Each structure stands twice: as structure tokens, then as C-alpha cells.
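Please check this today:
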Amino acid sequence: MRALTVVPGREDSLAVTDVPDPEPGEDELLVDALAVGVCGTDREIAAGEYGWAPSGRDRLVIGHESLGRVRRAPDGSGFSPGDLVAGVVRRPDPVPCGACAHGQFDMCRNGRYTERGIKELDGYASERWTVETGYAVKVDARLAEVGMLMEPTSVVAKAWEQVMKVGERAWFEPRTALVTGAGPIGLLAALLGVQAGLEVHVLDRVTEGPKPGLVAGLGATYHTGDIRQIIEQVGPDVVVEATGATQVVFDVIAAVRPYGIVCLTGVSPAGRRLTIDAGALNREMVLENEVVVGSVNANHAHYATAAKALAEADLDWLGRLVSRRVPLDRYADAFTGRPDDVKVAITF
């Protein structure tokens, strides 16, 4: 069968190659691929900046934002042929650390976890794939065109969970949230914020294209301009930072209101330098009880939350979030950004 594979660490090695047909184990589903989403991590792997192949192999099957239809399922598994499913990305480390031992492998402490399509395990960008029943998540049948959004939605589900856990250290009734960045993570974070009943504001630098309309479609407010002025105007209780832009990260931390919570979901590139008044920043965070928390990846509970959120979302809005669908044969187009891109998916 065909799969999209890469040699991790080697630039320009991304290619459609023939790989052996998967053979499901006793407790595994056999799944026909429908689509995989393409994100920044995939682009880093394709550029040779990241990723690890399975042991004894040069090439890695890429793709972690999965969507497929079950072809074969074990008896009594709770899955049936025809079900839409997504596969969880991370697997716990073999030791395991305390977090992994308690099912919280997204919080692995020793780094020995593995990840489908990223770290030592083949991903989901193949015509068929297998997944353990315990790491498969049912996707609502109406999401056949957009279910590859499950994994990024699980990431923001965890981010919101972390915000609530931090906030509940004391009285906490958030009313207003600011999301910085209107990419897929930012827009999905805004979706979950709106579903939670918050007044949501989204800040991005573009003034044209689909992003302002997508934010408006949620009933949220779209902003451009100076971030400190926006924070002063909005007064958010929570900020979800989804750009990874170094200046934006520190501007948000410096400007957030007292007892504010900043959740960082964007990954900043190394080597970017800027000058900050670290003493003033520390003083403000201490005296105003502010919190900055990083959040990445997701476990089973977050996937369950994501499945519920997507099932309750407006299907037309989700469809507009997926701006391009590219057949596997034209995979290179999916890795070439366009100005109006939001989420790009490769279809099978």
C-alpha cells in the first residue's frame, strides 16, 4: 500500500512510498484512511528539523491528525466496521513514569514516550492503518469531512482543562478570554471557549482572508493591532497563546490582568532573542498572582472532550476551518503554505 514517509533529519526526503500492508493484532482495529491533517510539527519533520524513525528503520510514516473508517474490529471491542475513528498520538513510556502509569502520558516526566507519526512509531498517513482499541476514539458520523480536527481539538481541550485546574486554586469565574493567533489551534481554542460560555476575543495580524469571518462565525470578536492595547480594552481573565511568536508570548505575560492565567500552546523557534525587563516581569507576576502554564499533547480524557466538542459544533463552520483538501498524490501542495490557509488536509 501507499504511505507518505520521510527520513527524519533529512530535508526534502518526504515521498509517497510503498510499505507493507498492516496486519492488525488481536486487540487492534484495521482502518481505511480518510484523511490526515497537516500541522507545523509535520512541516518541521518534513524539513528535517524533528522526528525519529522506528527502531531499525530509516523512514517514518508521517501524520498524526488522523481520520479513518474501521474495516475490521475485534469482537466485543465496542467498535464496528464502518465506524469513524481517530487514533491517539502518544503512547506511554515503558518504565513507566508516575504520570504515564496513571494514564496521563501527555505529562510524561522522563521523555521515553513514543508518538504516532512523530517519535519512533509510524503515523496515520497511509492508505490503511492499525490502532489498538484502547487508543482509538470514535468520531461522530456527521464529521466524515472534518474529523481530522480531532487531534488539534484534543490539544486545546487539554489547554482549557489546565486553565480551569489552575484557576480553581481559588475563587474562579472567568468571563472573558483572549486567544492570540487565529490558526487552527487558536480557532479551536476559541470554539471551546465559546462553548464554555465565555466572551471570546481573538487577536491575529491579518486583516483579510477567512480568519475574521471564522471568528465572527463563532460569535467571538476579531482584533488586530497592539496586543497590550487589546488586553487593556478586553481585560481577559484567561489568555490562550497560540502563535509561539516570542514577542507576543512576553507581551501577553506582561500585560495580562491581575490573577490572570496565560496558557502557552504555541511552540517558539529557538534562537529568537529579545530584551525584556525580567525583574519587572517577575515582580508583576508575584504581586498580581499571575500564572503562566504550558500545555501540549493530550490523553484519552482530552480526546473524549474533543469528540464531544466537535459533535456539538456547527458543521458548516468546521468545514470552513478546513481550507484545503489535497489528494495523497499531490502531498507536496499540502506542505506549501498559501495566504488563505487555515487547516490543510491530505485525503485518501
Remarks:
- The longest strand covers residues 28-38.
- The radius of gyration is 20 Å.
- The chain has a mean pLDDT of 95.
- Residues 150-167 form the longest helix (18 residues).
